[in-house]
């Protein structure tokens, strides 16, 4: 039996709310989850002076972390316990202190207990692409229904 759109959206939001409440890393870094839907999530983060490297640009690890966060929230919108089984990133442009980045994650395919998600990280305002991330997920535990 299928789940209605409104039930699926409510489950996605409940899943995101519960996950964020336990996500100290995202909270401490000021990452906000601004939108969720089944198989989708949007995360925002401002680059601070503490996040730049010796070249004066955002450390790639922080950009990866933001993309990984959008990925995690997107693949955990079905009520299941889902983890990353792999991820890769391509850095397209540099971000700097003061830039606000937005990562939009979208499910490409779920098959069996696995999934593939694409996340685009953009600089808000200019809306230019900073990075492209692809994550592969694995469902550890299915929800009870």
Write a brief structural summary.
By secondary structure, this protein is an alpha+beta fold. It has helices at 5-21, 24-28, 60-75, and strands at 32-37, 40-46, 81-91, 100-111, 114-123, 129-141. The chain has a single domain, classed as Roll (Thiol Ester Dehydrase, Chain A).
Structural class: alpha+beta
Main beta-sheet strand count, sense and barrel state: 6 strands, antiparallel
The portion of residues forming beta strands comes to 35-45%
Record the strand order, biggest sheet. Answer: 1-2-4-5-6-3
Tertiary shape = globular
CATH homologous superfamily? Answer: Hotdog Thioesterase
As residue ranges, the low-confidence spans are: none
Distance between the termini: 11 Å
Task: Count every beta strand, where a strand is a DSSP E run of 2 or more residues.
Answer: 6
Helix coverage percent: 25-40%
Mean pLDDT: 94
User: Order of SSEs, N→C?
Assistant: HHEEHEEEE
Seen as an oligomer or otherwise, the chain set is single chain
The DSSP helix count reads 3
Q: What is the CATH topology descriptor?
A: Thiol Ester Dehydrase, Chain A
Reported CATH architecture: Roll
Outline the structure in words:
The chain is an alpha+beta fold. The chain contains three helices and six strands. It has helices at 5-21, 24-28, 60-75, and strands spanning 32-37, 40-46, 81-91, 100-111, 114-123, 129-141. Strand 4 (100-111) and strand 5 (114-123) form a beta hairpin. The mean pLDDT is 94.
